[in-house]
């Protein structure tokens, strides 16, 4: 089960903190933090999966999915967050449903639990 802890309408939905569920966890298969791989992927619009971090080489378990269209908002992410995938097909409808969930507080926490339960593996 995966929890989405932050929903910023018109920008991104963020999840991946499977330990604490509040966006503060950082454990990954590589340990607590790992280095940026590369910045060849660019943030060109909605549906891109990227690593969430707190600065260079601070990747952990958290990721986000962009919901913004092209422009300065998503371009700002370039060279800071590694793009590692994209949402395909009708799955973007699910992303839009998550983005529409009502949030509370400055941390944009969803009022309802938003989870991935059966996503499969690559």
Provide a short characterization of the protein structure.
It holds the Pfam family Pro_isomerase. It comes from Prototheca wickerhamii. This protein has 122 residues and is of the alpha+beta class.
| Strand runs, count | 8
Question: What is the succession of H and E elements?
Answer: EEEEHEHEEE
Distance between the termini: 16 Å
Shape: globular
CATH class: Mainly Beta
Number of helical runs?
2
Question: How many separate structural domains?
Answer: 1
Strand arrangement within the widest β-sheet reads 5-3-4-2-1-8
**Helical percentage:** 10-25%
Mean pLDDT: 86
| Percent of sequence in beta strands | 15-25%
Q: Using the coordinates shown, work out and report the CATH topology.
A: Cyclophilin
Describe the structure.
This is Peptidyl-prolyl cis-trans isomerase. Helix content is about 10%, strand content about 25%. It contains two helices and eight strands. It has helices at about 70-75, 90-100; strands at about 1-10, 10-15, 50, 65, 85, 105, 110, 115. The chain has a six-stranded antiparallel beta sheet with strand order 5-3-4-2-1-8, with helices on one face. The mean pLDDT is about 85. The chain has one domain (about 1-115): Cyclophilin, CATH 2.40.100.10. By secondary structure, it is an alpha+beta fold.
């Amino acid at each position: 089960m995966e929890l989405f802890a932050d929903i910023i309408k018109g920008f991104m939905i963020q999840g991946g903190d499977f330990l604490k569920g509040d966006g503060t966890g950082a454990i990954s298969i590589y340990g607590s933090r790992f280095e940026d791989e590369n910045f060849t992927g660019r943030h060109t619009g909605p549906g891109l999966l990227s690593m969430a971090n707190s600065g260079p080489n601070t990747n952990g378990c958290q990721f986000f999915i962009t919901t913004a269209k092209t422009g300065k908002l998503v371009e700002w992410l370039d060279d800071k967050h590694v793009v590692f995938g994209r949402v395909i097909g009708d799955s973007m409808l699910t992303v839009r449903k998550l983005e529409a969930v009502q949030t509370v507080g400055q941390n944009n926490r969803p009022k309802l639990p938003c989870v991935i339960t059966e996503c499969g593996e690559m």
